[in-house]
Amino acid sequence: MSVEPSPSVTGQTQPRPPRRSMTSAVEVRRSARRRRTVSAYREGDRTIVLIPARMSEAEEQRWVGVMLDKLAAQESRRTLGDGELAERAERLSTQYLGGRATPASVRWVTNQNTRWGSCTPAEGSIRLSHRLQGMPEYVVDYVLLHELAHLLVPGHGPRFWRLLEAYPRTERARGYLEGVVAAARLPHPTPPDGA
Predict the structure, then answer these.
(1) N or C: which end of the chain has fewer CB within 10 A?
(2) Which pTM does this prediction carry?
């Protein structure tokens, strides 16, 4: 599986009608010459996903999700500095919290190894762990929104969780983060003899 920055399909492709994702249209192109690899790239406001022609509808759906996550992670690694993080917080507050959460500062930190984010409501400061850098955008957005919600509700009671219900990818992001934590606890595999 690969992510390619530009189209590189040879042979006949069968474009599908564009689909809508959270941020842009998604166009799936099937190719009889493509055997095993799946790739994706951005083309203006569209995302093009290239898949083998033999792939089932269910596999196509799964791979589109995987590739959108990979592209989002790649873009997140490239572009998110503290300034962009603050802009993102403002956008999320406006979109999901009615603009009521207004942090004084939002920044990446390298000293949070047991938390994904933290918030000091009295100061209006939000800090996100550097470990989130490179994760899919929807995961970073969830953690940022979680900390923004703490500016309005300090604890994790029902009122707090009701604020996060507006974000459509809350459960998916929480599952992703739980998977990261679980994977970190797994023992590293021992290479087979002779490797």
Answers:
(1) C
(2) 0.59
